[in-house]
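Session log. Operator J.P. requested a structure for one protein chain; no other inputs attached. Running the standard single-chain path with token output.
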Amino acid sequence: MSLPDLGRAIGLFAVTNVDDIVLLALFFARGVPPPKVALGQYPGFVPIG
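Structure written below.
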């Protein structure tokens, strides 16, 4: 993997994490219990990471 490709991959991962933070904030703002958010969010992230 070349350096520009690596930089692009890191940038895309960072943008995805910003999106993830926004979604988590929306879930918590709607009153979804933290254990339910964690159970739904993190197992879905493991295969990606």
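Operator note: The radius of gyration is 14 Å.
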